[in-house]
Amino acid sequence: MSLTLPSLCQTWVKVDSIEIEGEISTYTTDYMSNLYVATTDGKLLRFNPDSRESQIFSVPDIANITLIEAWNPLRPFIFSRDQQEFFYVERFTSSSNIYSLSDLTREYVELATRGTDNSIWIVESPNLQLKKFNESDGTLILEIPIGRLYNIQSLDYLKAYKNLLIASSSDNGIYLFEQFGNMLEHVPEKGISSFIISEDKLVSTVNDQMVVIDLNELKKEALTGPPDYTGLVIIGKRYFFLRNNTIDIYILR
What we know:
It is a single chain. The protein has 253 residues and is an all-beta fold. The chain has a domain of 176 residues: TolB, C-terminal domain (Neuraminidase, 6 Propeller). 2% of the residues lie in helices and 52% in strands. The chain has one helix and 25 strands. Strands 6, 7, 8, 9 and 10 form a five-stranded antiparallel sheet that branches. Strands 1-25-24-23 form a four-stranded antiparallel sheet, with no helix packed on it. Strands 2-3-4-5 form a four-stranded antiparallel sheet, with no helix packed on it. A hairpin with a 3-residue loop joins strand 3 and strand 4. The longest helix is centred in the middle third of the chain and has 5 residues. The two termini are 18 Å apart.
């Protein structure tokens, strides 16, 4: 992925558009620049870097996919907040057992994602407890009351990256935690409800602006894009702008 933002003198040129059957609920990428799109009716689609649909999977008994984690493209992690369940898609041909989050906690789970160290991270509500579990046997590894400790009121998205756990709140900004659940940094960039990460950079959108935050230096770049989009993925020199049920692909000239 190229994450260098364009200069102000360039012009957006639409080169392609993808129609999605159903409403887009979430999206992500993997290290090979494949794009994953989930819908509110439980479909999971994968597009290769030149925007051709390469795989489609209907998630069994899942009405709404909340979060995809695809850093392992052979075994994407799927979380459904509505069902309070998670599972893995094995090579896009079958799903593993569906795991109920009630086996890990009695509280309501707002967010769940897979860690990079064979763990599962969850955020409980209403008090925003951050918990980390062993993936293989469900053993509780740690528990941090991030709501009380850090005065975090709400979280919208969660992703593990290298030795970090990164969370976003559209009301309060970006939070960076280390692998033991201690907060390292807070970036007060409001409006970010979801994001992708590539090459140590967080990519998202805020009010029709492309926002790229360097996770090492915590520097931000921003540029206005086409109107009325809700998500952004940058692959090479192409910009994938996501809306409710379309993905419009632009280049800059």
